[in-house]
Each structure stands twice: as C-alpha cells, then as structure tokens.
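Researcher: Going back to the complex we discussed earlier. I've cleaned up the inputs and rechecked each line, so this should be the final set. Can you rerun the prediction on the complete assembly and write out the structure?
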Amino acid sequence: MKKLLLLGDEAIAQAALDAGLSGMYAYPGTPSTEIMEFIQNSKDAAGRNVHRQWSSNEKTAMEAALGMSYAGKRAMVAMKHVGLNVAADGFINSAMTGVNGGLIVVSADDPSMHSSQNEQDSRFYGKFSLVPCFEPSNQQEAYDMVFDAFEVSEKYKLPVLLRITTRLAHSRANIHLKAHIPEKKLSLPADPLQFVLLPAIARKKYKSLLSSYESLRYENRISKYNNFKDGNRRALGIIACGIAYNYLLENIEETINDFPVLKISAYPFPSDLIKDITGRCEEILILEEGAPLLEESVRGILDDGIKIYGRLDGTVPRDGELNPAIVAKAIGLPVSYGKDVPSIVKMRPPSFCNGCGHSDMFNSLNEAVKPYGQGHVFSDIGCYTLAALPPYNSINSCVDMGASVTMAIGAADAGLFPSIAVIGDSTFTHSGMTGLLDAVDKNSSVTIIISDNSTTGMTGGQKSKATGRLEQICEGIGVLREHIRVIVPLRKNHAANALIMKAEFEYNGVSVIIALRECIQTATKRKRSETSVE
Amino acid sequence: MKNDIIISGVGGQGILSIAASIGLAAVANDLFLKQAEVHGMSQRGGDVQSHLRLSDKKISSDLIPYGKANLIISVEPMESLRYLPWLSADGWLVTNSNPFINIPDYPAIDEILKEIKKVKNHIIIDADGIAKNSGSSRSGNMVILGAASPFIDMPFQSLENAVRELFSRKGEEVVQANLKALKAGRECSIGLKNGKVH
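Model: Rerun complete. Updated structure for the full complex:
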C-alpha cells in the first residue's frame, strides 16, 4: 500500500481524489487553504480534469458544490470556520434538499485564533443543520473518514460536515492510501422536486430530515469512529472528541488500561455510548477541542448527575486549543516544563513585508486623514489588517469579510465624516461589491479604498478574481467614473496620493480609490517562475 | 528511538526546508513522523515554529509536551529562547548566532547569547558566515541543520540524501552548495560539542 507524508489538509484532499471526487470548491482561508491547493497541484486531478478553481466566496463555493452533487457526482467544498458563516444559507438548506452525489463540507476551525477573528466551533453547525458530522482525531483518520463520509452522504442523501482544527490541518503525518474509486457518472436526482424547497415540499423534507437525524444517532453507536474501551479502574472515565483523543493518548499511552475511554468522532453523538460510560464510572472528564458542545449536553441544565469535569467547571480552560499539558493536568497527571522564557525575549508580531504596497498606501492615508482625527477608517480581513498595529495605527475595525464597506456606510448614515473603508481586492470581490451597491443606491458619503495587491495575499497568494477588472466592476455598480481613482502606492507618489485621498474624502458621495501595486511575495514568486521558464 | 525537535525562526527564514529535510530522511528510515507547522498570518515576519516528532513507534500528539523536546534548532538566536519551556533538562539547543532584527525593541545580542549560554547543552554557530565560506550565502539553514545533525538519531547520510532530494530540481550546483553547507555545519558543531565535553 502506498504511503505518503501529508498535512492533514492534504490527506483530506488526497482522500477525496482517491474516493472519486469530481469537483473541489473553496475560497482560501487559514487553516483550510491547502486542501484546494493540493488538488490544484495534483496530476491525478489535472488528468481527470477535476474541477479545482477557487470560488469568489464560501457561499458560491458551497452552492456550486451542491450543484455538482445535484448532477450525481462527488463534490467537496472547504473553508475556514468563519467561511461557513458566509456559506451558511446554502449549507443549512442543503440539509433540507439533501444531496444526489456525495457531498462533503470541510470546515477548518482555528481554536486559539492563530489566524482568525474568533474560535467558533463548527460542530454546532452540524447539530443546527441536522447533518452528520465527522471529527477526525488524526491525519490518517481524516484520510479514511473522507471515504466513509462520501458513503454516508450517499446513503442518507445528506451533506456531511467534516470538522477539523488547525493542528490537524497543518501537521504532517504518514498516511497509508487506499485503492482508487472511479468518478460517478452524470445522473440527475430521481425526484425532480428534490431540490425545490417550496414551503409545502420543505415541510415534508424537514420531517424526514428530523427522522434521519435520529437514525444517524442510532447508527453512530456502532460507527467505527466512536468507540468505547473499558478500564481496570472505574474512578474516572474519559470522553474525548476528535483531536482531543490524540492528546489523551499522548498522556495515557502506557496507563490506558486504567481508564474507561469513550472516543467520539462521529456526530450526532450516540447517547447510548455516553450513558454506558457514565453509568459505570464515578466521575467523568470530557475533553473537546473547541466549545463544550458535548459537555453542555451531558450536564444538562440541572447538572445533578454524575460529577463531570471539563471546560465548564474550569478543569480545562474555557477557551483556546488543547495541548498535551492541559490534558495531563485535567487527568491529574504531573506536567513537565522546561525553563521559563527569559524576560529579554520580545514579542515578534507579524508585519508588512519590505516592499509592500499596503504600507505605502497606509502612510498616505494616515496623512490624508490626520486633519479629521482618529476613528474614521473601517477595515477588513487581510494582510492590511496589520495596519491596526504600530507604527501605523490606521484602522478602527476588522470584523468580517466585506464589513469595512458596509460599516462605513452605517457610520456615514450616523453622521461620521469622512467615513472611509479600506478593503483588499480579493475581499472586495468576496463580499464588498454588494455593500458598494448599497452605497451607490443611496449615494452614501463614503470613500472606499481598495488596496489592490492583485492576489489573495494573507493565505499565500491565490488568484484574486478582482485582478484587472476592479474599475469596470465599480463603474458597473454605479460609481461615477470621475470618482474612481487609481493610484500607485509607492513612496515617490506619497504626497500626490494623500492629496487624491483628501479630495475624495471631501466629495459628498461614493468614491473608490484603487491603490494598485502587486503583492511583493506574489511578484517575487512570479518573476522566479518566469525566469525558470526562460 | 524517539526525537522531539522544535525548529524555530522568523517567518520567511525558511525553517520549513529544515523540517522537510528531516521529514524526507525520516521517511527513508521508515520512521513515524509528525510535523506541525505554522501557516497564515504569522508567516509575515512573525515568530514561527515547527514541532517535529520522530519515532519508531506511532506518535499521538502533533504538539510536543512542555519539557520533552530533545532538541531546539533555531535559525535565529532570540527565537531559540522562546521555546525553552519545551526543552528537556538534558536537551540540546542549536542556534544561529546572527540576529534577525525586524522589531524596534530587539534586545542586545550579547544579552541573548548570555541567556543561551545558560542552557546546559548549547551550540551557537555563525551559520551565515559558514554558509558564505561554503560558497552559498543562502544555505545558512543547511548549516544549522548540519550543526543539529549529531543530535538527531538518524544516519547523517540519510540527511544528505534528503537535502539532495529536496534541492534536486534546482540543479546539481545548488545541491552541492547545500551539501557542503550541511557538512560544514556538522563539523563545526562536532568540534564545539567535543570542546564542551573537556
């Protein structure tokens, strides 16, 4: 059997290809990006022409994947956890329509917020939408689960949520591959109304969704991903979900026979197995990477049953990702520790690269906005968010993709003048365009600066759908031609750029300033590949 | 056999090629491997680290527990200190002596070296200088990997093969320069290590 060294993300991508994937859909987002990138670099995918282009955002990705499933083929869509918020409308309703070809929705959560604005736990989405959810404990299991997830998806005619977290996504491990499954042929759903959620149809479909959720719960008793192992001692039973099981094994590899352990990696979680372990132990420890989803259920509001330790009583910190030490402490094992970090060691936060156009743009913006004082600049998700830090201190918000434009509109509505948005080119085509239409529609007094580095920079330089068409898009949405200004953010243009910004702040209507300069990382990579071609 | 290694540096310094070399060698030696990397925001000039675990048995956690690392390999001196909570009492710290200064409050290098010398087992080498003398100023990484190689429980030859494999696409000249840097780092380190024993 073939063995490869793969990141968790790559293992999922490889598994999807091996399981007969016909279409991969995604928008880049840490820690999910490498799933699509692996498929884009795969010879197998190229040879079979598996769909592998980036989508404009997670919602379009989700819906396109559902379309491929409608046509009877296996599809996968991947996103970071907050991307699932964007895709939520399509995702939740895909549980209602059900699927035709197998459909896997990968949501990569980022507990501890290494590269995110929150640490929401995607398992809630599984419960909320009533779809099966898998949570692998290691990379090999992630690989294997993809095959089973496609099967479960086709058996229950439901999308399957595959929830992973940063450590699993971005850690490499040895993966044993399975035999390749051929792609499915094009075949339309047997029921032509399956995907029509008219209320009369939706009501029936919801009843069947509710009943399939109970069947799933029942079946998950015997899922190979949920297993109970009894222990010699019954004092403390441990329930570990997903990757928490890995940290548990790290700590009790040699003493595992002393503990009854229930591993849960397939949801809805099986009540019978939980009753089984709680019934035979004096106390229970619940380990979950993310929110205390299972713990809340097991405790209930009354919390008057067996003694439970977990995130809710502080045995495990309420926030942040798990690690071997947190789990050791929770079990009551000694925690090893090296030396403290010497006090002379300073923080080294990320910063703009040398030669980054964003930094020159912010220098001009800072000068242009100075006469108006602090608090006028709404920003967005991308490298340019680093301008919140010194020495720039330029921006006053970073909330969600596209929110710079719409928050600037709301603040202008409230009377803030000037009201300025700074958004990247890829973020703009992801979710900024509709906000701009709102602004044009009511002639808001806002200035939208699109810091166009012609790539999706923060996630490593994926293609930006905005490249070369921003002026046309803005004009098409209705921004007046004379208020679409293109500047080149270079030091030598600093004074002129600041003047243009100031002039547009003073205009009482919608202005767009496109600050166009290619990302230095992308440019270097491009030049390198061009010279190697010569 | 079990090696728990933390590789550290600053985003953009290329710690991942050190990790990739060890990874390839581990596969050739039929070892289990786990290697947690940092992607995303921190790669923009922030501190980055990789937890790399090698074993002849299955490995569970992707993260090394505190106090359990046998080795810290750092391409930047201040960054080597950031991971001391992970280093075991008799673990080795192998670091480049050349600071990467991209923050305004970077401490005095003497202070940093003083702290590094407090670690019982340490190797401090001028990787940039050695790389330059080996004819490839860009292979400081490989000097550091070479300097760390005496503390990694795999035959040195398997690391050489891995470096060859990793750089093969860039032509024989690049391969040879990196191999030379790897060897120079190893020799320097063995010299320092033996000096310490006396």
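Model: Worth noting: Strands of chain B lie at 2-10, 32-36, 47-55, 69-74, 87-96, 121-125.
Researcher: Good, that matches what I expected from the previous run.
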